[in-house]
Amino acid sequence: MESVTRLGRLSPSILASSSFVLVLGIFFVAANLRAPITGIAPLLDKIIAAFELSNTQAGMLTTLPLIAFAIASPMAASLARKIGIEASLFISLLLIGGGINLRLIDSVWALYIATATIGVGIAIGNVLLPSLIKRDFPARVAVMTSCYVLAMGIFSGGFSALVTPLANMHFLNWQGALGVFSLITLLSIVLWIPRLRTRTMPDTVTADMSERVPPNSAKASKVWHFPLAWQVTLFLGLNSFMTYILIGWLPNILVESGHTPEYAGVLHGWLQVASAVPGFLLIPLLPRLKDQRIPAVVISIIGAVSTLGLLYAPQFAIYWTIMVGFSSGGCFILGLSFISFRSQDAVQAASLSGMAQSFGYSLAAIGPMLAGYLYSSLGNWSGGLWLCASASLCCALVGLGCGRDHVLPKFHPS
User: Fold this and answer.
1) Where does a domain end: 184, 199, 214?
2) What is the mean pLDDT of the chain?
3) H or E element that contains 218
4) How far is it, in rounded angstroms, from Cα 94 to Cα 102?
5) Per-residue pLDDT for 206 more than 60?
6) Which of 35, 245, 305, 335 reaches 20 to 30 Å from 223, CA-CA?
């Protein structure tokens, strides 16, 4: 039986020996972490017609993965401690692949269960892939992170653009079109199999912060007591709220404004590709800024303007879509950066990250269903787009607080 290697104890020579297959495997794992859930949006009209769903019920197809994220994300580290990061990512791919194939069953309940299963698999990958990159590419974390985020954007964007033409093929229909992505997942599994020979466990220095709070420190829950923590949390949560409304409903919004379903799918793809671009600009820039208020406000306002542009000037939809994608991705990167910049130590960062992600995914889960309900009530998408614009404007206001150059106070014993 192979010995278990601790994350923090790998020698530089082992890290330096990371092969091309490893890099390719990482990128293909990343390719599975968005497209299987975002690719369903261009086909929502067909799914609604097939199962006679309401818009609120259809919104659940975007909401379920977010609920799975909130529930499964904290469990990913425990899984990695038991079986290793490589095996955990392999299970992530198996869950995603199983969920994709489960959607081939002609049942609305199978569709919901499949969507939740995919969400659990993606949650595990989202949590553990950055840890793998930090371990194997310690000197290139920013570059590798930007590249794998770009891979997510390209694969999800490309699939969104192709899924409607695929669904229009009679021998595929919408279920077969969604199932096509299982070929990418299968290739990812094959590329990842060689990694199963290595079994690395989370190091005790970085694994579970909640178990390592010093005896004289206050509980990690103290983070909930500070306004700054709530500002960071709201910044991430409001951006996720806006983002997942558009991920879930943008094709329907565009079709109602006069665009063809095929073109709407292409623009849905551009939304996701554009969201990956800000990483290459912001990751090297942010550490050089005195504070982050200006980018937080400017990027948030771009999101508000562009979502209202989709409502009032839909003929320029391609420009609005790229702008809102850039805003969404930029605010997400800013929010993750705030977790590090506003914390004094690893315990605070872990507590703040858990708070922000738990609340953020919970808030985001409300968005698609609420937007669908407003559409059913108003008969148009104005309510949903104003929700997005309002969330972006609130991001700008909150960004004035969490973008300042200050940190959480030290936790003191109760």
Assistant:
1) 199
2) 84
3) none
4) 12
5) no
6) 245
Q: Does residue 209 lie within any of the structural domains?
A: no
Final residue belonging to a domain, choices 149, 167, 199: 199
**In terms of domains, do 336 and 395 share one?**
yes
Helices 317-341 and 346-378 meet at what angle, rounded to 10?
A: 150
Helix (H, G, I), strand (E, B) or coil at 118: helix
Same domain, 279 and 366: yes
- Name the domain count of the chain: 2
- Beta strands per DSSP E along 120-256: 200-201
Give per-residue pLDDT as tens, 207-217: 444 344 443 33
- 93-119 pLDDT, tens digit per residue, is 999 999 999 999 999 999 999 999 999
Neighbouring residues of 369: CB distance < 8 A, sequence distance ≥ 6: 56, 59, 60, 63
Residue 49 Cα distances to 7, 54, 71, 380, 412, angstroms: 49, 9, 30, 18, 57
Q: Residues 353-404: pLDDT tens digits?
A: 778 877 888 888 899 989 999 999 999 999 999 999 999 999 999 999 999 9
Q: What is the pLDDT of residue 337?
A: 82
Please compute, for residue 353, the number of CA atoms within 13 A of its CA located in the half-sphere on the CB side.
18
Domain holding 366, by residue range, is 223-407
Give residues with Cβ within 8 angstroms of 372, minimum separation 6: 54, 55, 56, 57, 58, 59, 248, 249, 384
29 occurs within a structural domain: yes
Q: How far apart are CA 39 and CA 247, in angstroms?
A: 9
Tell me the one-letter amino acid at 365: A
